[in-house]
Amino acid sequence: MGIDTPATRNLFPVEDSIAELGQLATTAGAEIVGTVTQKLDSPSPSHYLGKGKLHELGDLVLAEEATVVFFDDELSPTQQRNLEAALKVKVLDRTALILDIFARRAATREGQLQVELAQHEYLLPRLAGQWSHLERLGGGIGTRGPGETQLETDRRLIRTRIERLKRDLEAVRRHRSLHRRRRAVRGVPVVALVGYTNAGKSTLLNAMAKATVLTEDKVFATLDPTTRRIKLPSQREVLLTDTVGFIQKLPTHLVAAFRATLEELAEADLLLHVVDISHARAS
Ligand SMILES: Nc1nc2c(ncn2[C@@H]2O[C@H](COP(=O)(O)OP(=O)(O)OP(=O)(O)O)[C@@H](O)[C@H]2O)c(=O)[nH]1
Ligand SMILES: [Mg+2]
């Protein structure tokens, strides 16, 4: 489900955006049975889409026996709650979907820390009615202070966890910057491969470095940066870094959480932009 608003029309048309949402959903394991879009001046604060469209969507959910509806933007906690109440199925927004894919893909400790931080920050304002998500946190029993409700306790636990994750990530960041400084001293230039997700960055790294990084026709196959030393035809050595791909409407929590990874880019000597030439908007 997506909406077509004047604010996004020229930047990222709803057809492209909804196609990408479908690709994200498929990557996460869903099967698409239908899509609905609506032209609106701006999203409705209560339900994101209009009343009539909501009915149409509800009918489609019933007819197709859908179990989840994906929304193409980040929903406010209120919109999400209202939509779940109206549609009586699970409602996931673009952010939750991307977070879910990232959570499955994170392979290194740093990647996992970054994803967990983003998940907790997304979850915090949406806590009411999301009890099932909290089971993983565990350890809640017996730590509740006097007079606190379960919700307050959960919020406190999550805030504590967020602080902890930020500290751990800070340590990772310091370690990385030391690493980079050492590389700089040795004078080996860094070339970073950047570009849209699924554009072919890892394939290019593999070809140039004779490496075996995972490549797949799925979005976000790569989350953690990989660096390989290669020799150019001129015999000059450079470090080639493969990075996480970009996507439209990237959740702000993820941008912040992936700062450590993105810092690699800021300090590269050359950014090599990889573009999928078969993409409609490649030119
Ligand atoms: N036909 C064709 N397919 C390619 C080319 N380069 C990559 N692919 C395919 O495109 C898909 C995505 O390639 P990846 O290298 O995983 O892309 P990526 O940019 O690393 O993607 P993420 O890590 O998911 O962001 C894979 O199925 C590749 O086999 C190419 O030059 N031609
Ligand atoms: Mg890749």
Task: Walk me through the topology.
Blueprint: E1 2-4, H1 6-9, H2 14-27, E2 37-39, H3 51-64, E3 68-71, H4 77-87, E4 90-93, H5 94-105, H6 109-123, H7 131-134, H8 150-186, E5 190-195, H9 201-209, E6 226-231, E7 237-242, H10 252-257, H11 259-266, E8 270-274
Parallel strand pairs: 1-2, 3-4, 5-7, 5-8
Antiparallel strand pairs: 6-7
Task: Explain what you see.
The protein is of the alpha/beta class and 283 residues long. The chain has 2 domains: 97 residues, 3-Layer(aba) Sandwich (Rossmann fold); 125 residues, P-loop containing nucleotide triphosphate hydrolases (Rossmann fold, 3-Layer(aba) Sandwich), CATH 3.40.50. Helices cover 47% and strands 13% of the residues. The protein has 11 helices and 8 strands. The strands form 3 sheets. A 4-stranded mixed β-sheet has the order 6-7-5-8, with helices on one face. The protein has a two-stranded parallel ribbon with strand order 1-2. Strands 3-4 form a two-stranded parallel sheet. α5 runs antiparallel to α6. The two termini are 28 Å apart. 28% of the residues are buried. About 4% of the residues have low confidence. Bound molecules: guanosine-5'-triphosphate and magnesium ion (MG). Magnesium ion binds next to α9.
Q: Stretches where pLDDT falls below 50 for ≥5 residues?
A: 130-140
**Helix fraction?**
40-55%
Secondary structure tally, helices:
11
CATH topology tier name of the largest domain: Rossmann fold
Chain-averaged pLDDT: 86
